[in-house]
Structures are given as structure tokens and as C-alpha cells.
Amino acid sequence: MTELLRTLFVSTPGTSLHLEGDTIRIHHPERPGRHIQPLIRIDQLVVWRGVDVSDELMLRCLADDRGITWLSRNGRFLGRAGGAQLGNPLLRLEQVRAYDDAARRLTIAKSVVAGKLQNYRQLLLRIARDADGARQSDIRAIAERHAEALIAVASCGSLTELLGIEGNAARAYFEGIPLLAKGVPPGRSRRPPENPFNCVLSFCYTMLKVSVIGALEHRGLDPYIGYLHGVRPGKPSLALDLMEELRPLLVDRLVLTLFNRRRITAAHTRSDPAGGVALTDEGRAVVLTEWSQARERAWRHSGLNRDVPAALLPIVQTRLFARHLRGDEPAYTPWIAS
Amino acid sequence: MDESAAEQEWASIPISAIEHFGYCPRQAALIHLDRYFADNVDTQRGHFAHEVVDAGGPGVSRTGVRTWTALEVSDTTLGVHGICDVVEFPDGQPIPVEHKSGSYRPGSAADLQVAAQVICLRGMFSADVPHGVIFAGRQRRRHEVVVDDALQARLRDVVARLRAVLRAGSLPPPVNDRRCDRCSLKEGCMPDARIDASSLFVPLPLGRWDD
């Protein structure tokens, strides 16, 4: 029985983590008392630069297949330790063969985009249901664009064409952001994010990326060889592929809620002179608390005919993906909210 | 696939896979091909029961018999290798004792597992080894398993079928029956998954998911 385990996020600089029996002892000079977390309830550690992980704790985590991910102060992915290489190397060969085969590559990329479009449409239709007047019809119009894009994807014959369809749908969505979150400017900006909304969005995408990379490595797949996102050094393309279907409801919906409920305010972010926006320490703590709660929420999985917590969806989908690669399933079926 | 790495790899197969295969061929493939494993109450009980015998090395049993725990054995003719929980040497002759946390059922895959150990020990010690022993933790009883021609023939057949599954490199279909209820790998095996890609590109109406 797989238990829903927690990710331990530690971002405060100066914190050190130690192994104490079967627990993690969290120490910070300015935080008195003994703080421990049982290892058995934790599936992975995500630590920001400036947090010290003791050798003994690291080795214990590696022995137990408990991944450790390091992020920069700005939340950029620095690296991950995951113990011995897991999974079946034959699967990785098959992963490369599928990449080299243009038809297989396109088929997988199409599934990935379809999953993304379906779930963005779910998100839009859900928000439209509670909206009224012009706002409702405007949101439904974007959902309609996604429906048309889906139909175009079905008959699309090349990766370039597919990327075009996907790009247009994404643009329509991000232009419509003010309809979905009051007072948030339209458009998507990254590197750096130019407003708090995009900043929190990027931060949560990184959190999702960490869990998808973890799931892929755990399954023995190479996160850097993807199909829609291709292969580029330093780009975890397969993780980005599998994130597409998960982004709308696991990240976007959460971030929209955070802004609509004013859980994130101006005090949680700060701008630099070049116009980039970053989370403050307090803002990061708020987002991580909400993210951790959202990970526990159960979602219906129609393929498995049962509920799956958000935190386990990357693992479940990675398994289904591996099965398709190996020929055990004729297609890769993304998770679609139902 | 002709002479691939996978085929050479399975020239020798782990004895533990025999019992997994006996329970469910897909379980054996998930553990030994996919390197997937998960624990449940039954497997945890097994781990605890094994703590003593996993230590490895020489010892003396309560009845004064010389023993060796966690002994690595193999047989190239049958093409198997594994670890015997305990090997006892009552008269200098080895007898494998396989520890099971549950009850013993005659004719089950455990018989095949201990038979494979007997075959290994016969070759490695040039000894007769007429039988092996299964210690059933639930009843705290020892059961003798005589390794005769019939059991050896069954073992050879199972090893050949298991090797074919491992060499094929793909998962056998799920059994999806009562075995799944007690299987610790159910979560990752997903025996009842219905993969339906037919509606993937059809714009779906708003689902029933809610906040």
C-alpha cells in the first residue's frame, strides 16, 4: 500500500538537517528546541541553497530511495540525489528509440498536448460556470479556442504544426488571465517574471517539476529526453512533457485561487531594479504551505477508476508512460480531470 | 531482439523470482524487470521474520546443529542463483531451511524455491541433499520438502517459463483476480487500469470534479 507521504521543504538559510535515529532533526540557531520529523512519513526532501544536509542524513535518504533536490535561492533547480540508478535500462533504450522514430515521437507529443488542452479547458469551463455576463462568455470563448485546438491536434502531421497549435492556445489562455484572476495583468513572463502572478506561477511550476523529475528518475526514465520539448542540454524535456497535463489543475488553478482569495499580497513579493519579481521568504512559506495542502487533494483518475492524490499523479502517469514506451499499452493516455 | 544484453542477463535468474512467478508472472516481471517493489503488512512481516537469518555467517542452532545464514548459492546447469536463508549441516551435509512468515501450503511455489536451493547445494557441495526444509512462521513448524524427479521436472519447467518472461522484457498481462487483493504491488501494477485513448482529442464536457 503506497501511503501518501509528504515532501519536506526547507528554505530558511542557516538551517541544518541531521539524521537522528529514524528521524530528521531540523536545527536552526535562532529556533530553540528540538524539531524532528519521522523519515517514514517523508518521500523526498527539497532544500534551498543555504540549508545544510548532513552526510549521514543524505546517505540514509539515498539508501531508502528518498530523493533530495537542491534549489537556488530563487527556486532554480540545482540538482538532485536519488541513490542507485533505478528501473530497467531497457526502458531507457526504448525511450531513446521512441525519440528517434519521428512517428512515435509525434504520437506521444500529441497525447501530451491533448492532455494539456483538455485540462486547461476543464479549468476554464469550471471558472465560467461560476461567472456571469460578458466575463462568462469571454472565458467560454477561450475554452472554445482550446476545443478547436484539440481537434486540430488530432489531425496534425508534424511537430512544428503541433507546437504552433499549442502556442496559440497558450497565448489565448494567458491573454485571458485578467478574466480568471481579478487585477492580474495579461500575458506570461518568465526569466524574470514581471509580476507577482507570474512569479508565483513559475515557482509552483518548479515545485511540480521537482516532483515529476523525481517520479521519472524513480521509474528509471531519463528526464532530459522528451518528445514535445525535444532534447536540449540542461532542459528536463520529458519532465516538461509530463507536466503539461498536470499544470492546469495542479498549478494554475491553485495560483488563481491564491490571488483571488488574496492569500498572496504585495508584501509577499519584491521587485528588483530590472523589473523582475521574486517571492520574499514569507511569500515562499505561504505558497509552500498551500502547495503542500494542494498535493493532498484527491483527483478522480478515470483510467484507474479510483481517486489519486495530486502528489501521486506524477508517479501514476510516469508508470503509464513507461508502459506505453515498452509497448504494454498502445497509447500514452494523459490524466484528464473527469 | 536477438543476442541482446537482456538475453545474456537472464542466463541465470534469481531464485526469489521463482516464488514471485508462482504467485503471479506479472509480479515477477515487475520486481525483476522493472525493479519495482512496495511493502504491505505481509511483506513487512516477512522482513521482520528475516532479520535474524539475513545477518549472514556461521552459527549454531538451538539443537546444536552447525548453521550458516544468508549463504549465496548458484547452479549454472539450471541457471539460477540466490541466497539460502539458513543452511544447516547436521552431519556435515547441507540442508537449506527457507523461512516463511506465513503458513505452509504443500505444492506451492515455496516448494520450487527450496528445490532450487537444494539443486544448488547438491552441485556446490557434491552432496546428496535429499530434501530441503520450509519453516512456516505462522505455525512455527518445519516442513520437509523432498526433492524428487517430479519436483525437479516442475522446477525446470517453471524456470524455463520464468526465463522466457524475463527475456521478453515486457510485462505479462495482469491476472486481476483475488491474488491482487493481497499483493503489495497492486498500486504500481494497476491491474484494473482501463487505457482508453479514444476520447483523447474529443473536447470533453466539464467533469464532475469540484472544489
UniProtKB/TrEMBL annotation, chain A:
<dbReference type="GO" id="GO:0046872">
    <property type="term" value="F:metal ion binding"/>
</dbReference>
<comment type="similarity">
    <text>Belongs to the CRISPR-associated endonuclease Cas1 family.</text>
</comment>
<keyword id="KW-0255">Endonuclease</keyword>
<dbReference type="InterPro" id="IPR050646">
    <property type="entry name" value="Cas1"/>
</dbReference>
<keyword id="KW-0540">Nuclease</keyword>
<keyword id="KW-0238">DNA-binding</keyword>
<keyword id="KW-0460">Magnesium</keyword>
<comment type="subunit">
    <text>Homodimer, forms a heterotetramer with a Cas2 homodimer.</text>
</comment>
<dbReference type="GO" id="GO:0043571">
    <property type="term" value="P:maintenance of CRISPR repeat elements"/>
</dbReference>
<feature type="binding site">
    <location>
        <position position="166"/>
    </location>
    <ligand>
        <name>Mn(2+)</name>
    </ligand>
</feature>
<dbReference type="Pfam" id="PF01867">
    <property type="entry name" value="Cas_Cas1"/>
</dbReference>
<dbReference type="GO" id="GO:0003677">
    <property type="term" value="F:DNA binding"/>
</dbReference>
<keyword id="KW-0479">Metal-binding</keyword>
<dbReference type="InterPro" id="IPR002729">
    <property type="entry name" value="CRISPR-assoc_Cas1"/>
</dbReference>
<feature type="binding site">
    <location>
        <position position="244"/>
    </location>
    <ligand>
        <name>Mn(2+)</name>
    </ligand>
</feature>
<protein>
    <recommendedName>
        <fullName>CRISPR-associated endonuclease Cas1</fullName>
        <ecNumber>3.1.-.-</ecNumber>
    </recommendedName>
</protein>
<comment type="function">
    <text>CRISPR (clustered regularly interspaced short palindromic repeat), is an adaptive immune system that provides protection against mobile genetic elements (viruses, transposable elements and conjugative plasmids). CRISPR clusters contain spacers, sequences complementary to antecedent mobile elements, and target invading nucleic acids. CRISPR clusters are transcribed and processed into CRISPR RNA (crRNA). Acts as a dsDNA endonuclease. Involved in the integration of spacer DNA into the CRISPR cassette.</text>
</comment>
<dbReference type="InterPro" id="IPR042211">
    <property type="entry name" value="CRISPR-assoc_Cas1_N"/>
</dbReference>
<dbReference type="GO" id="GO:0004519">
    <property type="term" value="F:endonuclease activity"/>
</dbReference>
<keyword id="KW-0378">Hydrolase</keyword>
<dbReference type="GO" id="GO:0016787">
    <property type="term" value="F:hydrolase activity"/>
</dbReference>
<dbReference type="InterPro" id="IPR042206">
    <property type="entry name" value="CRISPR-assoc_Cas1_C"/>
</dbReference>
Automatic annotation (TrEMBL), chain B:
<dbReference type="GO" id="GO:0004527">
    <property type="term" value="F:exonuclease activity"/>
</dbReference>
<dbReference type="InterPro" id="IPR011604">
    <property type="entry name" value="PDDEXK-like_dom_sf"/>
</dbReference>
<keyword id="KW-0479">Metal-binding</keyword>
<comment type="function">
    <text>CRISPR (clustered regularly interspaced short palindromic repeat) is an adaptive immune system that provides protection against mobile genetic elements (viruses, transposable elements and conjugative plasmids). CRISPR clusters contain sequences complementary to antecedent mobile elements and target invading nucleic acids. CRISPR clusters are transcribed and processed into CRISPR RNA (crRNA).</text>
</comment>
<keyword id="KW-0378">Hydrolase</keyword>
<keyword id="KW-0540">Nuclease</keyword>
<keyword id="KW-0411">Iron-sulfur</keyword>
<keyword id="KW-0269">Exonuclease</keyword>
<keyword id="KW-0408">Iron</keyword>
<dbReference type="InterPro" id="IPR013343">
    <property type="entry name" value="CRISPR-assoc_prot_Cas4"/>
</dbReference>
<keyword id="KW-0051">Antiviral defense</keyword>
<protein>
    <recommendedName>
        <fullName>CRISPR-associated exonuclease Cas4</fullName>
        <ecNumber>3.1.12.1</ecNumber>
    </recommendedName>
</protein>
<dbReference type="GO" id="GO:0051607">
    <property type="term" value="P:defense response to virus"/>
</dbReference>
<feature type="domain" description="DUF83">
    <location>
        <begin position="16"/>
        <end position="190"/>
    </location>
</feature>
<dbReference type="InterPro" id="IPR022765">
    <property type="entry name" value="Dna2/Cas4_DUF83"/>
</dbReference>
<comment type="similarity">
    <text>Belongs to the CRISPR-associated exonuclease Cas4 family.</text>
</comment>
<dbReference type="GO" id="GO:0046872">
    <property type="term" value="F:metal ion binding"/>
</dbReference>
<dbReference type="GO" id="GO:0051536">
    <property type="term" value="F:iron-sulfur cluster binding"/>
</dbReference>
<dbReference type="Pfam" id="PF01930">
    <property type="entry name" value="Cas_Cas4"/>
</dbReference>
<keyword id="KW-0464">Manganese</keyword>
